## 1
Amino acid sequence: QVQLLESGGGSVQSGGSLRLTCEGSGYTYSTDTMAWFRQAPGKEREAVAAIDRDGDTNYADDVKGRFTISRGDSRNTIYLQMDNLKPEDTAVYYCAADGPPLWKWWLRLEYNYWGQGTQVTVSS
């Protein structure tokens, strides 16, 4: 059974840092794009960052320079290091796997597996 388990969410003040972890099982994720999405209350789920099997990455414009996506040694684990957090980063963050080529990484419907999400709250 395919599972994606996110962890590392929490509450921080503006300017703080958090590191999210997504551990996958039941699937060979290392061959596909994995990504982080987020959904704030009343808004659609949006792409944050993605990484492909070669380690190439892409980021949403509003997180470039602040967030870093990486893969773990197991290749089925990805991380999202979030620095200089802002109140507008508050959202539920979701891990996604079995995604499209990196050139269309932002297309939510192209990902086949999703985690349950982890809450990130940034206060001003």
## 2
Amino acid sequence: VQLQASGGGLVQAGASLKLSCLYSGPTLSTYAIAWFRQSPGKEREFVSAISWTGSGTYYADSVKGRFTISRHNAKNTVYLQMNGLKPEDTAVYYCAADPGTRVSGTAVGDYRYWGQGTLVTVSS
């Protein structure tokens, strides 16, 4: 399984960005997808996750109400719409996949496959 995150960039506080995660794997495979982020000197932390059907979505408290996760399975893509960005959102954002249909957890170890990350920088 391969994942490729894109859409990061440099924005001012209050702006919006939309990240994309393109995933590929064996035909008929299903995956729950999550976004994590990591800032310099900090551990990788959970941001959001979505089940295979999209019916289950989960958010870290720090992004709830500002970020929205969605997916388009026909395009093998998961999106993270980020609104009202804050300087503390600055991080490398990673998407990760867990085989199955449901979101099994929010820990790094709950996800088997990882993409390379995309950098989001929010200036004050």
